[in-house]
Amino acid sequence: MGCSSSKNFTSDIISKHFSLHNEESLSITKTIPQSIRFLENYLIIWLYDETSNKFENEIKQLRTLIYGLKTFNNIDACITFIDNIQDEKVFLIISGIHRTFERFHHLTQLEKLYIFDSSHKQNDEKYQILKYDIIHNIDNLYKQLQEDMKLCEMDLILITTVFIPSEEISFSSKLTKQQASFLFTQMLKEIIARLKFESCSKDVFIDFCRLYYMNNNEQLHIIDEFAKNYRPNKALWWLTNQCFISKILDRVQRTHEIDIIYKLGFFIKQINIQLNHLYEENSLLMKTISIVYRGKTMSSIEFDTTVKNNCGGFLAFTNFLIATIDKKDAIDFVDRRLTMHPNMTGIIFEINIDQTKFNEKSPFALLKDADMNRNEICFYMSTVFRIESIEQTMNGTIIIWFVKLKLIDVNDQQLLRIVAPTRNDDIHLNPGYCLGKLLMEMGEYKRAEQFLLELLHDPSVRSQPRRLVRVHSGLAAIYTYNNQYVNALDHYQLALETSLTYLQSNHPDLVPIYKAIGDNYLHQKDYIHALENYEKAIELLEQGTSQMNADIIIDLHILLIDIGKPSNRTLDGFICHANSTFENGLITTIVNNNTKLVNNKEYDVIIIGVEFASLISARELSRRDRSVLILEAKNRIDGRTFYCTS
Question: Among 422, 448, 473, where does a domain finish?
């Protein structure tokens, strides 16, 4: 799909959708947004006394530094706002309010607090318990904020780790949150590598940024410069200079905002190409480099669960990782961060670079060319390392953990057990839904909902019924999880209607949809419609003979029993199934041994079969002790045979 002229864009257009069709051009259309989104990693909040109006010029000056600046003159409203922030770090400035500073200490999103008070005396007792900066003029505040935000930005890199499984991970199986997070980063990298982007992709991204920064003249000037002067061989220069594009990319890679990552897809692919070129150009220098360093801080709990408990496993940085050749630079960075946040854990990642492991899909290179002269190595996003060892050391009075990482081959057999699903062509036939499913496995339901709603407008999804069914089913699953059963039913019904455009009405692929519809009716205590859909699912399943079908039939029958209103057809069918599946020999074994089956599901079915046969309430029976049930089963089954009824 071609790109229209960017001159006709209006201020109500903030989001553009993308095509996820495998190996085809990225198609982007214009849509009206649900809401204006925040696109940077941090924001400034200025809290001042409600009687004061003297900070207008200062606030105007700070807006040139960061677009996200919000003011408050009510402390309760300010605290509530910060407490509800999830993805951004907050730099808080307080002026003219000399009470209850301790109320801010519990706010986890608070990066740093500044007291801006020209009348303050350094020995004022009310400030002595605070460990934050006290600043007297706007120039010093501006300078300090610049420095602190740069340090914060460098520390906001997301790490995913995963322990090596004994068997290959299946995308269709239930994943742990840790596995899903690791797979998400690897799949996103694979998808972007496969996509082709239209020539207008840069213009679409520029229009998106102009709209977001429409009230920030300084950023608009930089965006104009990018529009005029950006070339693919300058991608790394723009990445390493802290401006709008690097800030947005750093954020969305950390927060998994897939739609914006796709808007940046052209830029990500060009970074990959330039890294490959730079590696070749600096091959002689690269041979002299074997170890690089990257500093980071994190909470002790995060460090233990993410890193320490996964020694020997795999680790990936979701962002483009820039590591220094100079160990001292990395240590100095950690020292400065720990000075600001003494309760955090300081970490130095010591990365061993094996040049033989270089791969053009996950390249790395020394940042030296005509535009750059840095003693740093840039690794492509989501490059995978093995955690070799973890060791605690002292740097003066500060504890620092040294984590030794080793670059591994992208075709490492242990790695393939984990990432094999991301390289499956079948997965890439429907990449958008797969990414949305992983977001759900990660527990990011709101992000998954937002992304799947975007996909409903994607031409490559709407033109492919099977893709559309998966998207509707994904949305329905999210709404079910959030107890929004009416919305869930709407999307399951749409999934069913769409499925019937390419499947016969008796196709077994319809079973999960009928069951899900029944589940949602059951949640709403609409037993008649729940029974109707469960029975449709059973009817389709009974056409098959696989053990999987038998297990699902058992589950569905138990659901019918739980409702407490089984129909005659269900009763007869269930007794028949109990007889044919488990046979009299199994029943005899239960009776003779008078012991509980190892497989509780089979045991339950026999007991429930007896329950049905004697027309006793399943609810009443299930409340009795299991040992009593076995004796009752023995007495009832002796000399009795179940017959199938048509």
Answer: 422
Residue 177 CB-density burial (10 A; 0-12 exposed, 13-18 middle, 19+ buried): exposed
Specify the pLDDT at position 109. 92
**What residue type is assigned to position 567 of the chain?**
S
The mean per-residue pLDDT over the stretch 428-444 comes to 82
Are 205 and 130 in a shared domain? no
What is the CATH number for 150?
A: 3.40.50.2300
pTM of the model: 0.74
How are beta strands 89-95 and 42-48 bridged, if at all?
parallel
The answer to whether residues 332 and 404 belong to one domain is: yes
Q: Give CA separation, 391 vs 50, 211, 215, 348, in Å.
A: 51, 48, 48, 10
Residue type, 432: G
99 contacts: CB under 8 Å, gap ≥ 6: none
CA dist 637 to 148, 315, 586, 630, Å? 77, 57, 12, 10
Beta pairing partners, 391? 402
**Helix, coil or strand: residue 386:** strand
Signed CA dihedral, 47, 50, 54, 57: sign only: positive
Q: Where are the alpha helices (DSSP H) in 48-176?
A: 56-63, 75-83, 138-155
Structure tokens at 397: 């009075």
Q: What is the dihedral of CA 339, 341, 345, 350, to 10 degrees?
A: -50
Q: Do the Cβ atoms of 282 and 274 come closer than 8 Å? A: no
Do residues 285 and 329 both lie within one domain?
yes
Asked if residues 89 and 156 have their Cβ atoms less than 8 Å apart, the reply is yes
The count of structural domains within the chain is 3
Reference 479, options 490, 468, 470; nearest CA is 490
- CA–CA dist 399, 391 (Å, integer): 10
Asked whether residue 50 falls in the same domain as residue 99, the answer is: yes
Grade residue 162 by pLDDT with cuts at 50, 70 and 90: very high
- Who's near 173: CB < 8 A, 6+ residues apart? none
| 637/399 Cα distance (integer angstroms) | 70
Q: Could you tell me if 314 and 387 are in contact, meaning their C-beta atoms sit under 8 angstroms apart?
A: yes
Which of 310-314, 556-560, 577-581, 625-629 holds the top average pLDDT?
310-314
- CA of residue 226 relative to chain centroid, distance: 30
Tokens of 178: 């840790």
224 and 106 in one domain?
no
Q: Which residues constitute the domain of residue 143? A: 42-155
Residue with tokens 């903030």: 14
Q: Is residue 475 part of a domain?
A: no
Concatenate the DSSP letters of all residues of 164-223 into one string: PPSS---TTSPPPHHHHHHHHHHHHHHHHHH-EE-TTHHHHHHHHHHHHTTT-HHHHHHH
Establish if 603 belongs to a structural domain: yes
Stated length of the chain: 646
Residues 6+ apart with CB under 8 A from 310: 161, 162, 163, 387
Q: Residue for token digits 């509800």? A: 84
* Position 2 in a domain: no
Residues 120 and 237 occupy one common structural domain: no
Cβ neighbours of 100 (radius 10 Å): 10
